[in-house]
Design goal:
Elements (H helix, E strand, L loop, with lengths): L5 E12 L2 E12 L3 E6 L5 H8 L7 E6 L2 E2 L4 H7 E4 L11 H11 L5 H11 L15 H13 L5 E5 L7 H16 L3 E5 L3 H7 L2 E6 L2 E7 L5 H12 L1
Parallel strand pairs: 3-8, 3-9, 6-7, 7-8
Antiparallel strand pairs: 1-2, 1-4, 4-5, 9-10
Helix pairs in contact: 3-4, 4-5
The chain binds adenosine-5'-triphosphate.
InterPro entries: AAA+_ATPase, ABC_transporter-like_ATP-bd, ABC_Transporter_VariousFunc, ABC_transptr_haem_export_CcmA, P-loop_NTPase
GO molecular function: ATP binding; ATP hydrolysis activity; transmembrane transporter activity
Pfam families: ABC_tran
């Protein structure tokens, strides 16, 4: 693992909104093939951190590099490298599921984009809904399609903000499999969750954020669920 290329390099990252500091100096390195779970109380700054990595918000200070590209400067290059599942779906409600995926395939110059769009609709169990407008989709269907959108161009880094929201049991099994496959391809992932069980089971490392700082880092394999619960309680209070 240690010899794998550095996927994410965050150095002394700070972010403020007006006079309100949100991130107060984050240092984090993630290597290719690594899965990092981000935990923390509501308002700790988890989404803000992920949005900066996804080039959706700019740092106030410090630096963020993805596979050597600077997130603040090399936005086009960075966007190709990432797949993002966030609170918003970033899908077009007036287009059908298939049209949405075909649009994103064109945007990322995915070879044989139409076929790839269909393959991904199948993968996420939405083939029956290919011709339905996304505006009519349920929360779980939207989440499944967001996963397809995020993976369509085979990104190197997955950024996942509560990616299991709205999913049924089969949906959960599906996304765990998609994450496994991504990691097997030497992709890396940072995911936010409020479920300690899933954080521990699905990650290599767990990072706990509190009031805009990294309060604790744990190796998942060496940390029992019970220990994680205690650490979480200490940090979040
Ligand atoms: N665009 C913005 N303008 C002003 N304040 C913001 C903005 N975005 C986020 N914040 C503030 O930053 C803080 C951290 O928000 P963030 O969404 O990063 O927290 P979080 O850890 O993801 O929380 P949650 O677990 O509730 O999703 C909050 O106090 C929030 O109000």
């Amino acid at each position: 693992m240690t010899s794998a290329p550095v996927a994410v390099e965050i150095q002394d990252l700070k972010k403020s909104y007006g006079f309100k500091p949100i991130l107060r100096g984050i240092d984090l390195q993630v290597r290719a093939g690594e899965r990092v779970a981000l935990l923390g109380a509501n308002g700790a700054g988890k989404t803000t951190l992920l949005r900066i990595l996804a080039c959706l918000a700019k740092p106030s200070a410090g630096s963020v590099h993805l596979y050597g590209w600077n997130c603040a400067r090399d936005v086009q290059e960075v966007r190709r490298l990432i797949g993002f599942v966030g609170h918003q779906s970033y899908l077009y409600e007036e287009l059908t599921a298939r049209e949405n995926l075909e649009f994103f395939a064109r945007m990322y110059s995915v070879p044989e984009g139409r076929e790839r769009a269909l393959t991904w609709l199948n993968r996420v169990g939405l083939e029956k809904y290919a011709r339905e407008r996304v505006g009519t989709f349920s929360r779980g269907q939207l989440q499944r399609l967001s996963w397809a959108r995020a993976l369509l161009h085979q990104p190197d880094l997955l950024l996942l903000d509560e990616p299991d929201t709205g999913l049924d049991q089969q949906g959960l099994v599906l996304i765990d499999k998609l994450l496994d496959e991504h990691i097997e391809r030497s992709g890396s992932a940072i995911f936010i969750t409020h479920q300690l069980e899933r954080a521990q089971a699905l990650s290599d490392r767990i990072v706990l954020l509190a009031r805009g700082r990294i309060a604790r880092r744990c190796e998942s394999e060496e940390t029992s669920l019970e220990t994680l619960r205690q650490v979480y309680q200490e940090v979040v209070g």
